Amino acid sequence: MSGTRFSPNRENPRDLSGEALVKALSRSWGYHVVHQEGSHIVLETAEPSHQRIVVPAHRQLRIGTLSTILRLVARHKGVERDAILRSFE
User: Fold this and answer.
1) How is the chain split into domains, by residue range?
2) Neighbouring residues of 41: CB distance < 8 A, sequence distance ≥ 6
3) What is the pLDDT of residues 30-58, one digit of tens each?
4) Which residues in the chain belong to E strands, given as ranges?
């Protein structure tokens, strides 16, 4: 994602929006938007098994929220969190 700043040790980006996260997860990790309820976007994937996650559609995600979403996706896909972060570059 252009405009998103990363530190060399792959900390969570500090300026990632919910919509940018949704686009990255859709493009690189097989998630698709199921629907949106207010300011929350519901994503779903079937690989390797069914999973739904909710991403707040905020201009800037809180670090704890982003960290939790990244941990859930990484665990479900069987990859390290850093692999998820690299896909945002």
Assistant:
1) 18-86
2) 18, 19, 22, 33, 54, 55, 56, 57
3) 999 999 999 999 999 999 999 999 999 99
4) 32-37, 40-45, 51-56
